[in-house]
Write a structure and sequence with these properties.
Elements: H1 2-8, H2 14-17, H3 25-32, H4 40-52
Length: about 70
């Protein structure tokens, strides 16, 4: 599915890609390729596009889960 997504995104318009959440071509292509709605790959692609277009700094993005309820 990731390979299919990569092939469907040969060229990307950065401004279209970062439209309102869920409306951009990356998210639509990811769903069309069968990726799960919480797949982190589309988010990583969007972050890379932002950096490459000069719209964001090249900083790490981390998703971390912490168990705040256990003692």
């Amino acid at each position: 599915m990731i390979t299919m997504l990569a092939q469907s995104l040969a060229e990307v318009d950065p401004w279209d890609a970062i439209k309102r959440f869920g409306d951009g071509e990356i998210n639509k292509a990811a769903l069309n390729c069968g990726l799960h709605v919480t797949c982190p790959v589309p988010m990583a692609i969007l972050k890379a596009i932002e950096v490459e277009a000069g719209l964001a700094l090249p900083r790490d993005t981390v998703i971390r889960f912490e168990d705040i309820f256990s003692e």
